[in-house]
């Protein structure tokens, strides 16, 4: 459903539209002259004349996106931002009309605004999803959804997926997203009760008991490891520390140079030290399962 402005805002939008339509169209040569004056001489008057002439393009693009439930004035403002970006980047030497170049920037600015504000949940995070969001309604209208509830048939979803080069599951997901509206978690479940939707959300965080037990178990495992490391020789502790207790462990070759032995000897020492650690820790636990951290 389209956004309905209050009467004062509607009058302001109408005055802006009328002013845009009164701006004279630019001849090709004059348009290029204005663009060159702005690009080469930073002529502000040339920029203003160039931009004002194409505010009508902003308005016509905003009309195309008016059914996404967002204020018309905001769409026009975003389109004007895109128009200014186009003017800053336009290269008249390429012999392309400014209207052709600016149309992409205007449309892109409005589409980005719609994707940011159409829903609380971020929509269209990839190029494929963005294309699907802005083309789904048009393609649905072309194939005339055949079910009573207006949903697409499987054949229709497959056709749209082929047309837009996306997965069928993406079409199904976007269809559900566009069919539903945002709801506040503070909204009551029904008129008769006092419960809100948020009252029934499950808390996925660990319970206080689980947090305390995890902290205690973590300290216990750290103590076991520290005691087991104390039983190793200095050279074995160096190898385990640098090979196993760092995010980026040292290589066998690096340790070999540091300790003055071969890579094969470092590997043998590491294997022997790991065996000692395993035996030492197993002597301290009542059950092997105590060593595992619960997910």
Short overview:
The protein has about 300 residues and is mainly alpha-helical.
Notable characteristics:
single chain, 295 residues, mainly alpha, Four Helix Bundle (Hemerythrin (Met), subunit A), Arc Repressor Mutant, subunit A, 3 domains, 64% helix, elongated
Describe this structure in words.
This protein has 295 residues and is mainly α. The protein folds into 3 domains: 1-118, Four Helix Bundle (Hemerythrin (Met), subunit A), CATH 1.20.120.1810; 124-181; 208-291, Winged helix-like DNA-binding domain superfamily/Winged helix DNA-binding domain (Arc Repressor Mutant, subunit A, Orthogonal Bundle). 64% of the residues lie in helices and 0% in strands. Helix 8 (154-164) crosses helix 9 (168-179).
Give the arrangement of secondary structure elements:
Blueprint: H1 7-22, H2 28-41, H3 44-53, H4 55-64, H5 72-89, H6 98-117, H7 127-143, H8 154-164, H9 168-179, H10 208-230, H11 234-244, H12 252-259, H13 263-282
Helix pairs in contact: 2-3, 4-5, 4-6, 5-6, 7-9, 8-9, 10-13, 11-13, 12-13
Reported for the largest beta sheet, the result is:
none
CATH topology name of the largest domain: Four Helix Bundle (Hemerythrin (Met), subunit A)
Helix share, percent: 55-70%
Q: From N to C, what is the helix and strand string?
A: HHHHHHHHHHHHH
CATH architecture of the largest domain: Up-down Bundle
Provide the number of structural domains: 3
Q: What low-confidence regions span 5 or more consecutive residues with pLDDT below 50?
A: none
Coarse shape: elongated
Question: Any idea of the CATH class of the largest domain?
Answer: Mainly Alpha
Secondary-structure content class:
mainly alpha
Number of strands: 0
Strand content: under 5%
* Mean pLDDT level: 81
Q: What oligomeric state do the depicted chains represent?
A: single chain
Ends: how far apart?
45 Å
Q: Round the Cα radius of gyration to an integer and report it.
A: 33 Å
Work out the helix count.
Answer: 13
């Amino acid at each position: 459903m389209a956004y309905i402005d209050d009467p004062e805002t509607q009058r302001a939008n109408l005055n802006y539209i009328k002013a845009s339509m009164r701006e004279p169209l630019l001849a090709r040569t004059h348009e290029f002259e204005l663009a060159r004056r702005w690009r080469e001489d930073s002529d502000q008057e040339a920029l203003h004349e160039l931009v004002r002439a194409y505010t009508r393009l902003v308005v016509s693009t905003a009309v195309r996106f008016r059914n996404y439930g967002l204020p018309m004035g905001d769409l026009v403002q975003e389109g004007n931002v895109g128009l200014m970006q186009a003017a800053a980047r336009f290269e008249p030497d390429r012999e392309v009309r400014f209207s052709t170049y600016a149309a992409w920037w205007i449309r892109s600015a409005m589409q980005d605004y719609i994707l940011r504000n159409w829903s609380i949940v971020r929509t269209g995070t990839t190029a494929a999803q963005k294309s699907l969001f802005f083309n789904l309604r048009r393609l649905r209208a072309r194939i005339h959804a055949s079910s009573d509830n207006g949903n697409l048939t499987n054949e229709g979803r497959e056709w749209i997926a082929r047309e837009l080069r996306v997965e069928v599951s993406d079409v199904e997901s976007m269809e559900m997203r566009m069919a539903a509206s945002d709801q506040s978690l503070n909204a009551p479940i029904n008129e008769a009760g006092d419960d809100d939707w948020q009252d029934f959300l499950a808390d996925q965080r660990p319970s206080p008991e689980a947090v305390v037990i995890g902290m205690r178990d973590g300290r216990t495992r750290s103590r076991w490891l520290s005691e087991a490391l104390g039983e190793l020789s200095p050279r074995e502790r160096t190898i385990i520390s640098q090979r196993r207790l760092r995010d980026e462990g040292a290589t066998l070759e690096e340790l070999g140079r540091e300790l003055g032995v071969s890579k094969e000897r470092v590997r043998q020492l590491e294997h022997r030290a790991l065996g000692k650690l395993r035996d030492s820790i197993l002597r301290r636990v009542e059950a092997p399962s105590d060593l595992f951290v619960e997910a």
